[in-house]
Design brief:
mainly beta; six-stranded antiparallel sheet; about 10% helix
Length: about 200
């Protein structure tokens, strides 16, 4: 389980296709603390560390993951948000994040606000995923609070710290992002649909 509090930004240094899978090799500030078989969130996608060599580590994404997330769009030099699993004795600073992306979304606007930024997003409504005003959303692995919640649109505000310490400073209008909707909301929606 993750919390959506990004620890560091990693950089893709190699991409190797193996059939329909892709193995990504990255570097990050805490590579020396990783271990093989460890789960690590990459832009909100939980992947398993399969190799570590010096300041590099590798993970593999299967075809299903590549189709449903933005990982298939990564290139050498791409930056990704990284978070290790929450330790059992850790602080719960974000919200419950599983590392299972529900669908992708698209940046529709970025509006500077004299020291902060407003980001607007849209997503395809057929997945029946929803946001609620002041609810939680995970965007590229970052736990954020929703406002201006619409049928398939929402907005988030980004403070300078988050802007600088996540990949938000690299996003442009029309970029594709990974969305994981709030697990509590997903369970409530399912229960309401069963009745």
């Amino acid at each position: 389980m993750f919390t959506g509090i990004v620890e560091a930004i990693g950089e893709v240094v190699d991409i190797h296709k193996e059939g329909t899978n892709i193995t990504f090799t990255l570097t990050c500030p805490f590579t020396n603390e990783l271990k093989i078989d460890q789960s690590l969130s990459h832009n909100g996608v939980c992947l398993t560390v399969i190799a570590i060599e010096g300041n590099l580590y590798s993970v593999t994404a299967i075809d299903e993951t590549l189709k449903k997330t933005n990982l298939g769009k990564l290139e050498v030099g791409s930056k990704v948000n990284l978070e290790r699993c929450m330790p059992a004795n850790g602080r719960f600073d974000g919200h419950i994040v599983q590392g299972h992306v529900d669908q992708i979304g698209r940046v529709t606007a970025i509006t500077p606000q004299d020291g902060s930024w407003l980001y607007d997003f849209e997503y395809e409504p057929e997945g029946q995923n929803i946001t609620v005003e002041k609810g939680s959303i995970c965007i590229n692995g970052t736990s954020l609070t929703v406002f201006n919640s619409g049928t398939n649109t929402f907005r988030v505000a980004i403070i300078p710290y988050t802007y600088e310490h996540t990949v938000f400073h690299t996003l442009k209008v029309d970029d594709i992002v990974n969305l994981e909707f709030d697990i509590v909301g997903k369970y409530i929606r399912k229960m309401m649909n069963l009745g």
